[in-house]
Amino acid sequence: MKIVYSDRKSGKTAQAEVAKEGESRLIGLRIGDQLEGSAVGIEGVKLQITGLSDNTGAPSRKEIDGSGKVWPLISSGVGIRGAKNGYRHRRMVRGNAISPDTVQINTVILEHGSRSLEELFKPKEKKEQ
Asked: Which of the pair, 21 or 94, is modelled with greater confidence?
């Protein structure tokens, strides 16, 4: 499972991999919940969940409870692009809870704590061939 964390002030984004043992602590959390960064391997920050994606690429909508797949009739927002005014489409989306099928969790940083931005958003080192 990946955690994508971003800082709204600087506009920087990075991602971290959650160990298999740590995934069980995240299951059941919902969009909008807050969690400590230490739960996902990012020490000293406080995160808020803003979105989810599952293993098929289906996004999650905040207003749908649970973690199952549903096919609501939607006209805007998460799960639909470029809908014309007055048109609604039936699209597959997931509920707002983290499940074992969740592959990516999108979060924003609420509190930085003692870590600086440079520590949180280190550039990846290029591998030499």
From this structure: 94
Q: What tokens were used for 40? A: 């996902």
Which residue bears the tokens 């990516």?
A: 104
Q: Which two tokens stand for residue 54?
A: 């599952």
Average pLDDT over residues 94-112: 90
This prediction's pTM: 0.81
For the four alpha carbons of 77, 49, 54 and 101, in that order, the dihedral sign comes to: negative
Show me where the domains of the chain are located.
2-112
pLDDT, tens digit, 9 for 90 and up, residues 71-85: 988 888 887 877 778
- What's at 99, amino acid-wise? S
The burial class, CB within 10 Å (0-12 / 13-18 / 19+), for 113 is middle
In 18-81 the beta strands, taken as DSSP E runs, fall at 34-36, 46-54, 69-70, 73-74
Rounded distance between C-alpha atoms, residue 81 and residue 89, angstroms: 10
